[in-house]
Amino acid sequence: MELRKKKIIEKIKRIISSRTLFFILPFLLPLLLIFIVNPELFILGWNEGQGSMTFIVLFILIEWLDSRNKLEFKKSRRSVIARLFLIFAMLFYFTFLYTFGYHTMIASLGKMINVPGDLSWTRMWDYVIYTFFVIGMISFSFNGPRDLKYFPTPIVYAIGMASILLLDSALPHSQLGIFEGVVSIIIFLVVSMLGYIGVRINIIDEQTLVIWGKKGTLKVSLYWPCVGILSMLIYFLVIIILMIKLDIPIYRKIMYTIIGAVGTFFINVIRIFLIIYYGAFINVNLRLFHETIGEVLFIIWIVIFILAVTEWESFKRKRKYEFEKKVINSKTHT
Q1: Using one digit for the tens of pLDDT, what is the confidence trace for 53-87?
Q2: Does residue 164 sit in the same domain as residue 228?
Q3: Same structural domain, 201 and 136
C-alpha cells in the first residue's frame, strides 16, 4: 500500500514539475483570461462557451507526458521571442473580442455571407485561432513543425471542433441529411430506455418528443447538433489516434478502436437520456445540465477507456516479461 502511494506521489510530482508547468502554462493563459474577463463564457457547452477548449490543454498535457523525454526546448532568442509574441497575440485576441464586445463584428460578417448560426460561427473562429496558436507554440518550442507528430490528439480535436461549429453554423437543425439515419437510431434507443423505466412519451414526428413528467409535459426537438453526432466523430478520431500510438499488435488496435467507438456512441445515448429525464422529472430548465453533462460524460469515458487500455497492456507486457524470464531461468538451470 505504501509503495503504491509513493508511486502516485511520484506521478503527481512529474506532472507538476517545473518543466511541465513551463510548457503547459502558455496554453492555459488565454483560457484563464476568458475566465477572469467573463466567467459565464467558461461553460462546457460544446457550441456555447470556451470550457470545452480546456480539453485541448488536457490532450496537450497527456501527449507531453508521453513524449517529453524525446523533446528538447529551444532556448534561442528567436524562439523565445516567437513564443512570447504568440502568447500576447492570443491574449490580445480574446481581450479584443470579449472585453470590448468585438465578437459581434464576427457575427455580422457571418450574416453578410448568409451563415444562420451566429453563436457557432463566432466560437468556430475561437477554435481556428487557438489551433494556430497551439501549432505555433509547439513548433517554436521544439524542433519546428516536425515535432507536431508528438501532439496529434489536441490538434485533431481542435480542428474537429472547429469543423463541427462550422457545420452547425452553416447547416443548423435537420439540414445535415447524411446523419439523419443515425439521429433516428439514437432517438429510438432513448425512447426505448425511457419507456423501459415507465416514462410516458408521445412521438410527434421523427425528431420531436413530448415527455410526460412530474411537472407537466416537456417538448424536445432532437436535431443532429443536439444528439452529438459530430462530437462523437471527433472522439472516435481521438480514440483512433491514441490507438495508433500504442505499440501493440494491429488486431488489438482494431479491437480497442471498435470498443472505443461503440462505447462513445452509447455514452452519447446515455447523455441524451439523462438530459431528457432531468428535464421531465427534476428541473425543466435544462440549460445548465445540458451545457455540462455531455462534455463531462465524454471526458470521463475517454479517460477511463484510455486508462483501462494502458493498464491492461501494461499488465500483459509484465506477464509476458515474467513468463520469458521463467523460461530463461529454467533453460539456465537445465
Answers
A1: 888 888 898 888 878 888 888 888 888 899 999 99
A2: no
A3: no
Calpha distance 119→168 (Å, rounded): 9
Residues 106-150 have pLDDT tens digits of 666 666 666 655 667 778 888 899 999 999 999 999 988 888 888
Range of the structural domain that residue 261 is part of: 176-334
143 lies in the same domain as 180: no
> Domains in the chain: how many in total?
2
Q: Looking at beta carbons, which pairs linking 142-149 to residues 24 or more positions away fall under 8 Å?
A: 142/71, 142/72, 142/73, 142/74, 143/71, 143/72, 143/74, 147/71
Which amino acid is present at 75?
Answer: K
Domain boundary among 172, 196, 215: 172
How far apart CA 303 and CA 245 sit, in angstroms, is 16
What's this model's pTM, rounded to 2 decimal places? 0.69
- Residue closest to 127 by CA, chosen among 93, 151, 172: 93
Contact 199, 274 (CB under 8 A): no
Residues 147 and 125 in one domain: yes
